[in-house]
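Predict the 3D structure for this chain.
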Amino acid sequence: MKRCPDDYIGRWFSVLHRLSLSHISTELQDLNLGSGQIMFLLELYHRDGVSQGELSACLSIDGANTTRALNKLEREGYVTREVDPQDKRAYRVYLTDKAWKIRARIHQLMTDWETALLANLSEEERDTFTKLLKKVGHTVADNYRCLGCHLARCDD
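Done. Predicted structure below.
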């Protein structure tokens, strides 16, 4: 049986992902930030001083891409990395004053974008959609850990 491309949810994940990246990059162009660095900032706003390895794991991003994103954030003055006193092989990542100063703008951008994405849903549909999306994300992460996937929960 043939399926219409619109029937594959993977297509919609892809479309939403690309639109989100484009929107975020456009909105943050003046800060020399791209969509690739935003999730790192958001996680660090929540857990400043986390190790680089933990950051990779909780965002499900491989070490090379994490290093690339942090290098850019460090070059732009948004983060610093310090050797972990407990493990000299690891680095802890800290936000700078420059990063803290744009926190409200970053959060507002993400909130406004989510509002636009969910504009045609009722409050109940938004809550249900968010819960289901998290459930799917955690299910995939739990089932594909053997492939290096990990998705931390905020309450972890």
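The longest strand covers residues 87-95.
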